[in-house]
Amino acid sequence: MKITFFSHSTCMLEIHGKSILIDPFFSENPIFRNRKKNFLKFFKKIDYILLTHAHYDHVCDVELFSHKFHNVLVISNYEISNFFGKKGIKTYGINYGSFISFPFGKLKYTWAAHSSVFNDGTYGGNPGGFLFHTDEGNLYISGDTSVMYEMNLIPIFGKLKLSILPIGGKYTMDIEEAIMASDFLKSEKILGVHYDTFEDIRIDREEAKKKFYEKGKELILLEQEKTIHI
Q1: Nearest-angstrom CA–CA distance, 140 and 50
Q2: In sequence order, what are the beta bridge partners of 73?
Q3: What is the number of other CB atoms lying within 10 angstroms of the CB of residue 209?
Q4: Taking the CB of residue 28, how many other CB atoms lie within 10 A of it?
Q5: What are the structural domains of the chain?
Q6: What is the Cα–Cα distance from 156 to 185, expressed in whole angstroms?
Q7: Beta strand 218-220 with 189-193: parallel, antiparallel or unpaired?
Q8: Which of 72, 77, 90, 174 is 20 to 30 Å from 149 at the Cα level?
Q9: Which of 134, 135, 154 is nearest to 143 (CA)?
Q10: What gap in Å lies between CA 182 and CA 163, rounded to an integer?
């Protein structure tokens, strides 16, 4: 499994030859706008776009990518899927429930403690995360959330190779709460997201890594466009 981090919560997963883009946030992202880069050049193909919730910093480029990659399938909760389906985009609506099989493996939509609304005020359904069970390992993407006791359920379904957790605080978990979440998840390797994009979610990266290390865990903080294999 290959994971490329772009910034904020935007990642690309490559599993069984399928390219899965998570929460695309480029055109309104200050990191990419200031660098004046054509972010579409990064992508040769996208098979799926997964959306955790409706906030603009997670969905603002769905239409742009769907126009470039006409066969892309957007997977999200029922309300977000309906929102984009009405725009002529191929969608697959899910909700909290069972695992669903896709060519890359099994996928479950998981609970998140957050909010979800589009910029125009349209209701974005319940926010969530995604649990992947694949032949290449199990991965949990929490989405924007605070720490929740429900996270204890995730490892019951199977051991995780990696958890992707927000660590910026204010709108989501901070470092200390993400460590608590990793304990609930029984996860020793964490990819941190949702930090440093804006002034009010800036962190001390070295201090964050140290705090995870002191708890016997590895916090991975990738630079933009960098990749890890798990």
Answers
A1: 13
A2: 48
A3: 17
A4: 12
A5: 2-223 (3.60.15.10)
A6: 9
A7: parallel
A8: 77
A9: 154
A10: 8
What backbone torsions phi and psi does residue 178 show, to the nearest 5 degrees? -65, -35
Q: Give the three-state DSSP class for 122.
A: coil
Q: Which of 129, 142, 144, 131 is nearest to 55 (CA)?
A: 144
Quick check: 90 and 97 in contact, CB under 8 A?
A: no
Angstrom distance (rounded) from CA 34 to CA 25: 14
Amino acid letter, residue 172: T
Classify residue 28 by its DSSP letter: T
Of the CA atoms within 13 Å of residue 37, those in its CB half-sphere come to: 14
pLDDT for 17-39, tens place per residue? 999 999 999 999 998 876 545 78
CA geometry: angle 52, 57, 62, nearest 5 deg? 70
Q: State the Cα–Cα distance between residues 129 and 137, nearest whole angstrom.
A: 17
**What is the pLDDT, as a whole number, of residue 37?**
56
Task: Tell me the H-state helices in the chain.
Answer: 30-35, 56-59, 62-68, 78-85, 175-185, 205-214
Q: Which residues of 160-192 are buried (b: 16+ CB within 10 A; e: fewer)?
A: bbbbbbbbbbebbbbbebbbbbbebbebbbbbb
Q: Mind listing the pLDDT tens digit for each residue in 122-166? A: 999 999 999 999 999 999 999 999 999 999 999 999 999 999 999
Cα 193 from Cα 8, distance rounded (Å): 6
